[in-house]
């Protein structure tokens, strides 16, 4: 790791993506923070055009800065979709500076937007880890959890309603069964009262009684009613 002078307003530190560059002093908006430098590659030369790494900074269609050299501290500045700095490209001078576009407080990580091409080639396949993208992912995860909870609550509410409906139906059927049983019991009781003496001596046969009396009661020759012995 390259040494940095104490009078510089930045230091190399640990970031969520690995190493990053952090402010050690307040940096005002518009301040030129650091220069991005390295060997110039001529893309018209086959050997230069064949060089590939993550630190290539294109100046023009022909010239590119190879920022992979150890002395280029600016290569530690990470990408951010909502950055606090930007690249100030000077094609004619073949120089690039990183300039603050916001006030940066001590301890805050310095970052800038690497551009669409770099994002698509290197960051999109693995997922951008900048604070803005991480915030979006957290929001999406929170929304997903909330939606999951909503669907779960909805399913539980539906299950409760179905259980309550089933319980009401079962209670209705049980009540109906009790009513039928009670009606049957009353009907059976009425039949028993209609065919049985209250003193439980058995059935009273009216016709048999009349027949018995007819044997004991007769009329005399004079037509008077008398009781036969």
Overview of the molecule:
It is a single chain. By secondary structure, the chain is α+β, with helices and mostly antiparallel strands. The chain has helices spanning 46-49, 116-123, 131-195, 206-216; strands at 10-15, 18-23, 32-36, 40-42, 56-58, 63-66, 78-79, 85-90, 95-100, 109-112, 217-219, 225-227. A 4-stranded mixed β-sheet has the order 1-2-10-7, with no helix packed on it. A 3-stranded antiparallel β-sheet has the order 3-9-8, with no helix packed on it.
Descriptive keywords:
22% strand, 229 residues, alpha+beta, 4 helices, rod-shaped, single chain, 3-stranded antiparallel sheet
- Multimeric organization: single chain
**Percent helix among the residues?**
25-40%
- In one word, what is the shape? rod-shaped
Number of helices: 4
Mean pLDDT: 85
The parts where pLDDT drops under 50 for at least 5 residues are none
- Rg, please? 52 Å
Strand content: 15-25%
**What structural class should be given to the helix and strand makeup?**
alpha+beta
N to C succession of SSEs: EEEEHEEEEEEHHHEE
Give the spatial strand order of the biggest sheet.
1-2-10-7
Query: What is the rounded distance between the termini?
Result: 146 Å
Number of strands: 12
How is the main sheet built? 4 strands, mixed
């Amino acid at each position: 790791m390259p040494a940095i002078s104490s009078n510089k307003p930045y230091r190399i530190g640990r970031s969520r993506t690995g190493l990053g560059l952090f402010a050690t002093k307040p940096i005002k908006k518009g301040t030129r923070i650091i220069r991005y430098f390295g060997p110039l590659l001529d893309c018209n030369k086959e050997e230069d055009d064949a060089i590939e790494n993550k630190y290539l900074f294109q100046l023009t269609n022909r010239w590119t800065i190879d920022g992979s050299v150890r002395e280029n501290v600016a290569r530690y500045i990470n990408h951010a979709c909502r950055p606090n700095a930007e690249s100030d490209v000077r094609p004619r001078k073949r120089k690039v500076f990183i300039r603050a576009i916001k006030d940066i407080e001590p301890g805050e990580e310095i970052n800038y937007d690497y551009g669409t091409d770099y994002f698509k080639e290197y960051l999109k396949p693995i997922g951008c880890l900048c604070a803005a993208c991480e915030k979006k992912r957290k929001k999406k995860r929170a929304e997903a959890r909330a939606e999951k909870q909503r669907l779960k609550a909805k399913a539980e509410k539906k299950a409760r309603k179905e259980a309550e409906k089933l319980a009401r139906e079962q209670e209705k059927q049980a009540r109906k069964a009790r009513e039928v049983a009670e009606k049957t019991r009353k009907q059976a009781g009425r039949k028993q009262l209609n065919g049985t003496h209250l003193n439980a001596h058995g059935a009273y046969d009216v016709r048999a009684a009349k027949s018995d009396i007819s044997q004991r009661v007769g009329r005399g020759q004079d037509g008077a009613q008398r009781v036969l012995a």
